[in-house]
């Protein structure tokens, strides 16, 4: 039994290598073994015949000339980019996209890709750009992505991604831009994201995230933090309030109760939105960060009291004004010298 198994595997491998060799010979151009095969699988799995643009795909033309494919001509035609945004791609990514080891950029946004985010992409160690936004992906974010330490841009917004955000993402040391907006991500935001020292933009709005960790101390470049429309509870940690370059922070539409050790944001350089929370307001509005509207639960009586107060002031001022005019007129008519005891 073991003998015949080994034999079977050996002959299978032999067949595979023959196929690879013959396809390389066909095209007459030297390329890294298997790239064409993977792209063929890619085409079939994602409904190639239905694509908007499929110029040269599966023809005898070299795969480096297929629409959306960019190769490195200096290096055995390895595929370094796949750019097929908004091209009618439809289906699941079940093939080993990770075998395109030299891939640096993959952009498949605005298609109808279903199912799992491909975990094998973690084999593309030089990947810098990953854009799967606006598809129908409904898996978790593979923790393996955290090993991609050259990643700079990650856009996974507008999918159906679920589960919690893997704490391993804190390992993407070069990450500048992280967009996870409009998914179904839940649980706590992992504290390890605080290790993203290069990050400038984070948008996790419209998910079901529950807690902001103590992060921020090392996020010196962070400018935009949008965590609006989640289910965040508890405190805004002091560490978030101390991010030096923050320009925009949106925590609206959550259930945040209080700022930990309140520190004022620099009002001149920052836009904030803390509306639609249940802030406990120990401080007056002027002191509260960035003119946040401090949503007290009893705003209606508050407004009523203010209106009555305004009305009283207004009426009083009106009466005094009319009274003064009347007196001035009388004085003018009678030529009486002004009397200091008028009031
Ligand atoms: C497809 O892309 C190629 C190369 O960019 C372009 O020349 C061609 O006009 C496009 N075809 C369609 C149908 O958009
Ligand atoms: C060229 O490709 C090989 C494997 O395909 C890879 O190991 C190597 O790093 C690449 N070199 C450059 C300069 O990209
Ligand atoms: C291209 O591939 C050949 C054969 O696999 C190898 O000898 C050569 O070093 C490769 N060239 C580069 C630039 O990686
Ligand atoms: C991702 O692709 C979409 C569609 O082309 C584009 O609008 C969006 O800006 C891209 N995201 C990033 C971060 O480049
Ligand atoms: C990343 O963050 C976690 C939690 O904040 C911390 O324990 C860990 O040491 C950090 N790792 C690195 C490599 O900085
Ligand atoms: C974050 O994403 C939401 C939802 O798509 C969007 O409305 C908002 O403008 C984004 N925030 C920032 C600061 O870009
Ligand atoms: C904050 O986010 C909400 C949506 O989540 C949006 O409606 C609002 O305009 C944002 N605030 C600012 C100041 O951008
Ligand atoms: C708070 O949310 C409610 C309903 O979701 C909405 O009617 C109201 O305008 C929001 N207030 C602010 C300040 O965004």
From TrEMBL:
It is found in: Membrane. Residues 1-24 form the signal peptide. Keywords: Leucine-rich repeat, Membrane, Repeat, Signal, Transmembrane, Transmembrane helix. It comes from the Eukaryota. The chain crosses the membrane at residues 300-322. GO terms for molecular function: receptor serine/threonine kinase binding. Gene3D superfamilies: Ribonuclease Inhibitor (3.80.10.10). GO terms for cellular component: membrane. PANTHER family: LRR RECEPTOR-LIKE SERINE/THREONINE-PROTEIN KINASE-RELATED, LRR RECEPTOR-LIKE SERINE_THREONINE-PROTEIN KINASE ERL1. This is Leucine-rich repeat-containing N-terminal plant-type domain-containing protein. It comes from Planoprotostelium fungivorum.
């Amino acid at each position: 039994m073991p003998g015949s198994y080994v034999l079977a595997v050996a002959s299978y491998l032999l067949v595979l290598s023959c196929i690879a060799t013959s396809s390389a010979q066909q095209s007459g151009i030297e390329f890294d073994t298997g790239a064409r095969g993977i792209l063929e699988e890619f085409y079939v799995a994602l409904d190639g015949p239905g694509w908007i643009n499929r110029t040269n795909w599966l023809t005898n033309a070299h795969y480096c000339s297929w629409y959306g494919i960019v190769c490195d001509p200096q290096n055995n035609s390895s595929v370094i980019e796949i750019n097929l945004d908004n091209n009618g791609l439809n289906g699941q990514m079940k093939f080993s996209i990770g075998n395109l080891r030299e891939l640096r950029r993959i952009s498949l946004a605005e298609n109808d890709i279903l199912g799992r985010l491909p975990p094998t992409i973690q084999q593309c160690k030089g990947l810098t750009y990953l854009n799967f936004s606006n598809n129908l992906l409904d898996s978790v974010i593979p923790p393996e992505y955290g090993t991609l330490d050259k990643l700079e841009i990650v856009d996974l917004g507008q999918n159906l991604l679920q589960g919690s955000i893997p704490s391993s993402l804190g390992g993407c040391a070069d990450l500048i831009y992280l967009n996870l907006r409009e998914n179904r991500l839940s649980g706590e935001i992992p504290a390890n994201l605080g290790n993203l020292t290069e990050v400038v933009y984070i948008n996790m709005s419209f998910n079901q995230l529950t807690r902001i960790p103590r992060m921020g101390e090392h996020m010196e470049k962070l400018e935009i933090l949008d965590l609006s429309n989640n289910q965040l509870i508890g405190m805004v940690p002091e560490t978030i309030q101390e991010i030096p370059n923050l320009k925009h922070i949106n925590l609206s539409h959550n259930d945040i109760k209080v700022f930990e050790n309140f520190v004022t944001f620099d009002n001149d350089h920052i836009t904030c939105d803390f509306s639609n929370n249940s802030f406990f307001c120990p401080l007056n509005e002027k002191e509260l960060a960035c003119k946040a509207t401090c949503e007290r639960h009893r705003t209606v009586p508050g407004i009523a009291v203010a209106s009555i107060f305004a009305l009283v002031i207004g009426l009083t001022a009106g009466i005094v004004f009319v009274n003064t005019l009347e007196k001035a007129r009388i004085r003018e008519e009678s030529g009486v010298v002004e009397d200091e005891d008028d009031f």
